[in-house]
Amino acid sequence: MPPFETTRRSWLTGAATCALTPPAHARARAFDSDDALKAVLQRAVAAQAVPWAGLLVARDGEDLFVHMEGAPRDHVDVLRSATKIATVTCLMTLVQAKALKLEDPVARFIPAFAGEKAGITLRHLLSMSSGLPPVYRGFNDSQPLAEAAQVIAGAPLAAKPGEVFIYGNLGLTVAGRIAEIAAGESWDAYFARAVAAPLGMTFEYGPLETGRLGGGGRTSLESYGRLLKLHLAGGRHGGKRILDYSLVKAMQSPSGARFRNPVPQTTAYGYGMGWWFDQVGTAGRPMIISDPGAWGAYPWIDLRRRYAAFLFVRKRLDDGVALQRTLRPLIEAGLDR
Fold it and tell me: Domain containing 332: what range?
């Protein structure tokens, strides 16, 4: 994997963001939790609860709060499962371009998905309802996606397609291969063209034992914040539509598969495509959606209060969850005043 041009590119991203962000005194009427949020991050790093911690809070396309404690503001690190929103967003751009349909059978692109796997669709892959197992011993993330998808095609199903939510990265690996076929180029090249460039993101995928498309994303605090702001704005960025509103909402809609939360550290009431449902309202519609990672990175969007936030840390999921649960009430208090 080519190295990041971290200093140059991240500095440019940070500089552009700073230029667009009003000074703190101009934002005080809308959000005045800055000092309290910084204090929480400072205490967490000082107590060695996490080695470093960053937080971004955005509303209406504006960064209300951006702070990194214990590392440079443009620090780049691994997202683990917080990668999934980036991956699903990229797949959705191909649906928008009509190169793919959510109901397309996987076998249309990868004939090895035959027999009991013939009923698996792209929607199943993205919603973790394909029936594929969470992991497969024959899978090797160092393989090109074309080879990896063929290996995964040999995995025995753990459930019938569409019936049960089974969390894992195998489905996204297969979906990534489908994207390569539909786009006519490598996953990394297409992601850079369809997502990273339009949003001005610094983002790359690196190897991960359970699947890089589900967990190997590498980026910085403010770069990832651009992705969250895209979803918060219903698919628009910089005055341009990047993703149809209907597809943004589809990612936030339950699949209908039988759901049981497999992650005891979090409270989840359902799953869409890439998004967990932290809180739900009437008819199971999500009110707060998130995509936390195993090393503690925790992005979320509050659909009722209309804000997005990203807690960026690297330690354990437990540590990220605990810190997020401390920070979220402070954010909400600042927005609700």
Answer: 6-77+214-336
